[in-house]
Amino acid sequence: MTVAISHDYLTQRGGAERVVLSMLRAFPRAPLYTSLYDAEGTFPEFRGADVRVTGLDRITPLRQHHRLALPLLPATFSRLQVSAYVVLCSSSGWAHATRVDGKKVVYCHTPARWLYHGAHYLAERQLAAKAGLAVLRPYLLRWDRRAAATSDRYLANSTVVRERIRNAYGIDAEILPPPPALGPGGPRQPIDGLEPDFFLCVSRLLPYKNVDAVVGAFSSNNAEDRLVIVGGGPEDDRLRAGAGPRVRLLGSVTDDQLRWLYGTCAGVVAASYEDYGLTPLEGAAFGKPAAVLRWGGFEDTVVQDKTGVFFERPEANAILGAVRDLRARNWDSDEISAHAERFSQRAFEERLREIVAEVG
Q1: 302 and 353 in one domain?
Q2: 58: Cβ–Cβ under 8 A, 6 or more apart, which residues?
Q3: What Cα–Cα distance (Å) separates residue 33 from each residue in 18, 25, 50, 73, 89?
Q4: How far from each other are the two terminal CA atoms of the chain, in whole angstroms?
Q5: Which sign does the torsion angle of CA 48, 281, 266, 320 carry?
Q6: Using CA atoms, how far apart are residues 291 and 286, in angstroms rounded to an integer?
Q7: In 3-state terms, what secondary structure has residue 195?
Q8: Number of structural domains found in the chain
Q9: In CATH, what number is assigned to the domain containing residue 329?
């Protein structure tokens, strides 16, 4: 049985890209089709894959700023033809439109956030993008729903995404949680000048990730702990300008450095509107508790009082209170690690292969 993979774009290091790497571990010979590929901007493991790009990739600026390609992506994926017995489409709004000769299985990270939740996805100052989206939205909604209807099987990464798929497309998707791609079993490289026992936020710096609220919590006069932020994005300059002396933004780091950060932190903090709560699971693999927003995918991956605590609003005071609660408790690192093992790479691979066999 031949299997191929289609993914929106390979231009960043995020949870969706880690899921694609997990798919490639399940099907190591699968060619990987994508609209844009920036080898320096995404995970280095993709260099060993059979990556096949569209003509859009010839426009160099789009590889560094993929959001500029938004008006071009519907037509790009509508024209993309993939020949395989089963095509796995890793989609946050684009790749599920891939045309296939065989069967199509869509792994949905979320129905297009920019289309259904544009207020969270776009910053207030991105007025031109919002205006353009308002004009294109009726066409894009029709295009998106037609694309979803071409699938033979739909998969969701979490409970909240399954509900979103049902509301957007009328499709009842199976939940297949993705595994943490980063575990404690690898080399660790310390960060120069950084002492252990900080709190860690790993996130792309986008408006809906609410990293500004996390920065605000640790920059307040009442804060006592240090915060380290890993990740890049359009909010970087604004966050650096508002960060206090206890906050350090590292930008992108290697996996070896990220293992060291998870291994030496006091806990993980996440305030984002997240479809799947990946970073608390990565922290849990290292036995670390998490303070997270009670929303979406975090409710699937964090167990109150066992692996972490929740705060109700993405606001500095609420985050600071949860961090203090996290710091005051005695956590069972073995129990936290055991929870993370339920979301293993092996379990993901086995179920994905079963689904491909059932569809084929």
Answers
A1: no
A2: none
A3: 15, 16, 8, 13, 9
A4: 8
A5: positive
A6: 15
A7: coil
A8: 2
A9: 3.40.50.2000
Q: Is 296 left (phi over 0), alpha (psi -120 to 50) or beta?
A: left
Ramachandran assignment for 80, one of left (phi > 0), alpha (psi -120 to 50 degrees), beta (any other):
beta
Task: Please give the structure tokens belonging to residue 271.
Answer: 């305030």
Amino acid in the structure at residue 340:
A
- If asked whether residues 174 and 209 sit together in one domain, one would say no
- CB-based contact 272:209 (threshold 8 Å): yes
Place of tokens 């590929």: 37
Looking up tokens 């569209």 gives 54
In this structure, what token pair is assigned to residue 157?
Answer: 């990464």
Residue 238 in any domain: the answer is yes
Q: What whole-number distance in Å separates Cα of residue 337 and Cα of residue 334?
A: 5
* pTM of the predicted model as reported, rounded to 2 decimal places: 0.76
The tens place of each residue's pLDDT in the chain, 360 residues long, gives 699 999 999 999 888 999 999 999 999 999 999 999 999 999 999 999 999 999 999 999 899 888 788 888 999 999 999 999 999 999 999 999 999 999 999 999 999 877 886 555 555 445 555 566 677 788 889 999 999 999 999 999 999 999 999 999 999 999 999 998 788 999 999 999 999 999 999 999 999 899 999 999 999 999 999 999 999 999 999 999 999 999 999 999 999 999 999 999 999 999 998 878 899 999 999 999 999 999 988 999 999 999 999 999 999 999 999 999 999 999 999 999 999 998 989 889 999 999 999 998
d(CA 43, CA 10): 9
Range of the domain at 286: 199-341
Could you tell me if 290 and 305 are in contact, meaning their C-beta atoms sit under 8 angstroms apart?
A: no
56, exposed or middle or buried, with CB in 10 Å at 0-12, 13-18, 19+? buried
